[in-house]
Amino acid sequence: MKKEEREEERFELLDHWLHWYGGFNATQIGDAIGISRQNVSLLIRNFRNSRPPGTLNYDPSRKMHVPGKGFQAKKHMVKSHLFLDHLRGQELINMYRPQRWWDPEDDILFENLDRYGSPEPSSSIVTTVVRAIHEKKILNIRYQSRRKDSSRLVSPNRLVYAVDRYHLRAFCHTTSTYRDFVLTRIFEASPFDEEASAKEGVRLSWVSEEKDSAWHTRKELRFRPNQNLPKDVIQTLKKDYPVVNGVLSIECNEATAPYIDMKFARPDFKHRIPQWVKLG
Question: What confidence score (pLDDT) does residue 273 get?
């Protein structure tokens, strides 16, 4: 990372603390990113110079730098759902490795209940898949679909999390199509030996997602609350989601649209009918 990029990343950290936590002091920032007090002072000075006039004030009673009248957080930072997703992400990171970086360590308590009872793919399978994505290698997998157990050659492109499960988006050389594979259903995975196969007359190369038209084609899905639900439930749904003029609009791509449909087709736990109705 270039020096300018690293400094701007740290500036965004200061923006983040100013907007969501109302300010910061030098000790907090120094501890968070592991730099000396002298370098924190330099960072704050450069931050002040890089932002519009009046961005930063100092409150001597609190001994903190606080937002000034000229402070403006970046557009993505003022979106509350993105901030909450960020907190959830930090909690997930902490399950994997100790992390103290963008947020006060103990001030925000967050518990991610979705992790309980979630599917757990094989560690060796995930390692093999991630390395194949990173190295752009073909994999030979055995996969258990709903109908049968099959062997396939795939070019892994990306990981997807949808409807409480992890999926692999990949080009399937066996069917010559882009497909989604549920990671827990891959029970064998090994690198495909391209050189050995070429000697035997089988020439295959890793295929990128460049021609994955379903992934690159945008789509808008529209839902409305199920009118067969009680009025108070409908009103709650309208509060929970960004419903405009009675309609919830979601932008996605053709590849992930079926997962969005599945999510909103789930029945209300009490009334046993779908909460949402899809519009044509």
Answer: 95
Determine the number of helices (DSSP H) and then strands (DSSP E) in the chain: 9, 10
The b-or-e profile of 53-85 (16+ CB within 10 A means b, else e) is eebbeeeeeeebbebbeebeeeeebeeeeebee
Distance between CA atoms of residues 93 and 140, nearest Å: 30
pLDDT tens string 241-255: 999 999 999 999 999
Task: Specify the 3-state DSSP secondary structure of 134.
Answer: helix
pLDDT tens string 96-125: 776 666 776 555 667 778 777 778 888 889
When the candidates are 2.60.40, 3.40.1130, 2.30.30, 1.20.1070, the CATH number that belongs to 123-212 is: 2.30.30
User: Per residue, what are the HEC states of 203-216?
Assistant: CCCCCCCCCCHHHH
CATH of domain 3-77: 1.10.10.10
The per-residue pLDDT for 278 is: 97
Check: CB of residue 248 under 8 Å from CB of residue 223.
Answer: yes
Give the residue among 245, 236, 135 at the shortest CA–CA distance from 191.
135
> pLDDT value at position 92?
77
